[in-house]
Design goal:
With 301 residues, the protein is α+β, with helices and mostly antiparallel strands. The chain contains 12 helices and 5 strands. A 5-stranded antiparallel beta sheet has the order 2-1-5-4-3, with helices on both faces. A hairpin with a 4-residue loop joins strand 1 and strand 2.
């Protein structure tokens, strides 16, 4: 148990929650809203926490929150770098040592664009395909990423080491995505230079995946800027979409958004994902649902 300033942390979290409007994070306003900003359960949902756990934090009680919980809250509450560091200090946790990876602060320009994309699925990822933040439609489309650290946080890494990651795309599309992922990683490795994070990922993947090793040795290089994807959704079936990317100035982060031409089946399926009312954590933002229950997905990129 660290020397947590529970009261100061509670006050600060509430102050940050109060300043965020539901529309800022793609949530409906609704006529019965009694708070100026987000509700506690909404923050908990955006951060991937239970409502009870977050409520205890705002009441100045509970155990010392982990670094992963703090990073999730920083993203959900749209904290800037100084505010994020303040939360870590109040919780008596070491400051995040790196500026990239799953605990990275989303670059303001990309976050501003993401906040404007309220009618289409969108998310921000790192150049190693680690999901940083998603809007509600992206969560409804592809699910939340698993709570992984290190190499396992990268969807590219999971693609070549975890068969479950591949259920996101139809089997006949797997070879295409494998080629594109490896060519993209080649470009990232070249840009980063002698970067230990990339070199370790490549070394481990070469040892664990013969497919990756063979593709890496082709030396194909191409950043993944746009792509046509077929995503297997558990309630709506296969959805054909176009995926577009906007890169940060340093190339370390990317804003991805998914769309489909008007009048297509993909556009119709996307319209069924629209979150019409707030639902508690664990529910899908689907206007129409099959009786299939909840689902957990590995977020694609």
């Amino acid at each position: 148990m660290g020397d947590v300033n529970h009261l100061a942390l509670a006050v600060f979290l509430k102050s940050r929650r109060d300043r965020i409007r539901p529309s800022d994070v793609g949530l409906p306003t609704g006529p019965r809203r009694r708070v100026p900003g987000l509700r506690r359960e909404e923050v908990a949902h955006l951060a991937g926490l239970s409502a009870d756990y977050y409520t205890e934090l705002e009441r100045g009680r509970g155990a010392q929150p982990s670094a992963q919980v703090l990073a999730s809250l920083a993203r959900a509450l749209r904290l800037n770098g100084d505010e994020r560091d303040h939360v870590f200090r109040l919780a008596d946790r070491p400051l995040p040592p790196v500026a990239h990876g799953p605990t990275a602060q989303v670059q303001p320009g990309l976050l501003g664009l993401l906040d404007q994309l309220t009618t289409t699925p969108a998310q921000v990822i790192t150049d190693l395909h680690e999901t940083l933040v998603q809007n509600p439609l992206a969560i409804a489309l592809v699910g939340r990423p698993p709570a992984q650290r290190g190499l396992e946080a990268s969807f590219v890494y999971r693609w070549f080491t975890d068969p479950g990651a591949r259920t996101l795309y139809p089997p006949e599309d797997h070879s295409h995505h494998s080629r594109v992922f490896v060519a993209d990683l080649q470009a990232v490795a070249a840009r980063r230079g002698n970067d230990t994070e990339v070199t370790r990922m490549v070394a481990v993947l070469r040892g664990r995946s013969a497919e990756f090793a063979a593709l890496w040795d082709t030396h194909d290089v191409a950043l993944r800027r746009t792509d046509h994807k077929r995503i297997v959704h558990p309630a709506l079936g296969v959805i054909e979409l176009d995926c577009h990317s906007v890169f940060s100035e340093d190339g370390r982060q990317r804003l991805l958004w998914f769309g489909a031409p008007p009048g297509t089946e993909g556009a119709t399926q996307l319209s069924l994902l629209a979150p019409t009312t707030w639902q508690p954590p664990g529910h899908l933002h689907l206007r129409h649902r099959r009786q299939s229950g909840e689902f957990s997905r590995s977020t694609p990129s």
